[in-house]
What does this fold into?
Amino acid sequence: MNGKISSGEVMAICVGIIFAMFPGFANYLILVSSRNDSLISLAIAFVIGLIPIFMIMFISKRIYTSFFKFSVDNFKIFGYVLDIILLILAFFTIFISSWLAIDFVISQFLTRSSYYLVAIFVSIIVGFSINKGIESLSRTIFILFVVSVSVIMFLLLTLIPYVDISNLKPIGVASFKSILNSSFVFLTVAISPIFYVLGLKSITKDGKNFPRKILVGYIIASFLIAFVLFFIITVYGIELGSILSYPVYGLFKKVQIFGFIERIENFAAIFLITAFFAQFSYFVYAIKSNISDMFKISNINIRNQSK
It folds into this structure.
């Protein structure tokens, strides 16, 4: 392995780490706050989010970045403060992501299993993936991304017969403050993880496409979230959709393909688990990479460097 990853894999990582915070966490906050105006708040947040995305793209072109290490000429103190903030947020994100993954698996599949047992099992899988290096990890995420996104888009199309557009009404009932709160939730979930992707620039094969793939990843993740949110509201209605823990998974329990293929919600589970795996694994890898750089550890296969 040459320790290099493609810009397409960078895009897949962006989509995974953005979407992972939506099911079971951000979707609840958005639906409860904005109600039937959730899609409006999402559209507003998407447009506003383009501003920091373009700023991140600008940073990626002019500032060398490693994991939690920003080389900014004449602004070393600012760099140190930013490093500490990003490191703290990374630990917080790992905590939320691991909790969501474990809670989803137990609540939907292993209702009688111990949280600790599932946590140990998940940690072993993530640890094994990270030990293989960033090239293997990013390739795995990319393959899972292509398969799961293709499947989830097909499954969403099968939900069209269950859509009730009247569930979108009434529109315009949420206060401006509520819409802004929901927009802030989306911006927090979608923008903050992107800063950690900057650490991949130095090991990306086609570095010129690196900023553009960040933008593409943000757009794809945003549209996926919008599509899922649309079907949650139009199929379930706002009252039921806002109280379910994982409505995106439950949506597909309604569907039968060709009239006899059932249990297709398990395909949706693959998509969710892929997103959880991408975010959890990548953030753990980023922290370990930072610790390796900090203590000059060279004998640990944390990050493959090009020779």
Residues 201 and 207 are 6 Å apart (CA to CA). The beta strands are 65-66, 69-70. Residues 76-108 form the longest helix (33 residues). The two ends are 10 Å apart (CA to CA).
